[in-house]
Amino acid sequence: APSYPRAVRSMLWLALLERVVCGIGQLVYSRVITHGGDMMLYFYTGGIVAKLLDTNFGFYFPEALKLLTQRPSLLDDLVGGGTNTGSMTAASGLLMYFEGGSELACHFTVTGLAMLGSFSIFKAFQQSAPEITPTRLFAATVLLPSTVFWTSALHKESYALAGIGLLFAGWRAFYAGKYVRFALMAPLGLLGVYFFRAPVLAPILLGFV
């Protein structure tokens, strides 16, 4: 919290509360109202990958990484390799494996990553536009209801938002002369966006020019 302006520190709790409420809302929407949707698909196919990892981690872990990075994999027939849906299945399976097979933990982990991504975007915008009131900027970049709702779930947009956050953190590190941090964060953010929502990269990279 000390790295945030005093005016927005109390709003961090509001952001967390909004994420939790929207995360629960997404679960109700998928499980109770629609009885389906992308998130349920990722729970199902990711659960299969998690069980395979539990059966023979040494054999299936490299295959899961291939599926994640859209290279030919023995798991391609599960959802169709070489696509961002395959990347989602692999990421979901890996998360569920390391979190004991819990769909709920996987769901809120990804929701939390998206929230951290939005925090990073706020910091980057604040640095580039210091004349804007911090509370207004925070509300626009972190609290926007439609953005929060659709990234508070096991969705591709959640991973993409986390990746954008890493990209922006790398951008801030570069201009601060912290090149090691830049070299770590920027490539991870770039890959995070590329594997899950590649079309988003074009306007983002143009913005860095």
Low-pLDDT runs of 5+ residues are: none
Oligomeric nature of the chains: single chain
Write down the overall geometry: globular
Structure classification: mainly alpha
Helix content: over 70%
What is the distance, rounded to the nearest whole angstrom, between the alpha carbons of the first and last residues? 31 Å
Number of helices: 11
Question: The biggest beta sheet, please?
Answer: none
Strand content: under 5%
Order of helices and strands: HHHHHHHHHHH
Average predicted confidence as pLDDT: 93
Number of strands: 0
Question: Taking Cα atoms only, what radius of gyration do you get, to the nearest Å?
Answer: 18 Å
3D architecture notes:
By secondary structure, the chain is mostly helical. It is built from eleven helices and no strands. The chain has helices spanning 6-33, 38-55, 57-68, 76-79, 84-98, 103-128, 134-142, 145-150, 156-175, 179-197, 201-208. α3 (57-68) runs antiparallel to α5 (84-98). The radius of gyration is 18 Å and the shape is globular.
